[in-house]
Amino acid sequence: MTSVLGVGSISSITLSNRSPHRHRSPAVRASPSFFSHHDNKIFGRRKLTVKAAETDANEVKAGAPEKAPASSDAGGSSFNQLLGIKGAAQETNKWKIRLQLTKPVTWPPLVWGVVCGAAASGNFHWNIEDVSKAIVCMMMSGPCLTGYTQTLNDWYDREIDAINEPYRPIPSGAISEGEVITQIWLLLLGGLGLAGLLDVWAGHKSPVIFYLAVGGSLLSYIYSAPPLKLKQNGWIGNFALGASYISLPWWAGQALFGTLNPDIIVLTLLYSIAGLGIAIVNDFKSIEGDRAMGLQSLPVAFGIDTAKWICVGAIDITQLSVAGYLLGADKPFYALALLGLILPQVYFQFQYFLKDPVKNDVKYQASAQPFLILGLLVTALAISH
Description:
This protein is mainly α. It is 65% helix and 2% strand. The model is unreliable at 1-76 (pLDDT under 50).
C-alpha cells in the first residue's frame, strides 16, 4: 500500500545475508500510537506480545506451493503477472518483474482519488493545462508513490510471502535484493520530484503537495517496516491503508486545483473507514502467513466469521453516514444517488463475500468496488457545489 504519497527513512533498509535454510523473524510488538487501544489484546485485559517462531525453510516448502497456481488460460496468467496479482505466471524479464512489484492493479483507486479531489475543488477546467496537471498528479500518486509503497511492502513481507506465495519475485529470487532497493529509491525520489514540480506549477507559496507526498511516504514506510510496522495491528494498519488510498490522493488533487479545508479533511478521513473495510478484504487471503509471523490482522484476531462482518460494516456504515451528511447539508439528490450506489454493494456482499470471503474476495471486489468509487465521485461533486 500501500499509500499514495510518501517519504521515510529508507536508509534503514539494509541488505541481509541470510542462510538459505533458515529464516528468523524478529519479535513483533504492538507499538504505541494514537490508536493504541489495540496494543492490548482486542477488548481484553492482557498485554499482547507476539513473537514469531523460527521457521525452517523445509517446513515452509511443505506448506506452500513452489510455483504460481496454474491458470487454465496462459494469457490470463501473464496478464495477472503484469498487474501484480495472485495467479501470476513465472517471469524472467526483469522489467516485467519490476512492474509486477509495483502492483499496477492498485493504482486506479489512487488515480480516482486525484479525480475526486480535482472535482471537489470546483476549479478544474477541461483545458490542456489542467488536464496535464491532473495527469502528472496521477503519475505521482499511482505509478511512482504507490509503486514505491508496494515494492517496499513486498520487501518487508518477503518472509511472509515465503509462506503464502513463495513464487513471488522476491522470495523466489527472481530479482536481487540490490535491484529491489534501487527500485524503492527511484520510485520514491521520482514521486517526490513530481510533487515538488506540481507545487511550482500550481504557484503554491507553501509546498503543500510535497508535504503530502513526504507524509504519505513516511506513512508507507512505518506501515511496512519495523519497529512500528503498523500493518501488524489490524485496526491501525488498515485505517492507515484506507487513508492512503482515499484521503491522500483526494487531498493532493484538491490542493492542486483549490484549497484544503477542515470539512474536506474530516469527510475524507471518515471515508477512509470504508477504506479500512476494503483493506480487511485483502487480509483473508493471508491468514496462514499472518498467523505464522505473528501479525494480528483482523481475520487472525477475530476469526473469519466476525472479521467479515466488521469488514462490511465499516464499508456500509461509513457510506450511509456520508449520505446522511449530504442530506443534512441540503444536498438530497446527491444523498439519494449515493444510497443508490450502496445498494448493489450490499447485494454483492451477500452474494459473494459473506458466503466465503477467502474464496470470493477478488470476485467481490471486482463486482462491488466500482460502485464505491463512483460514490466517492458523487460526494466530490456534491462538495464542489
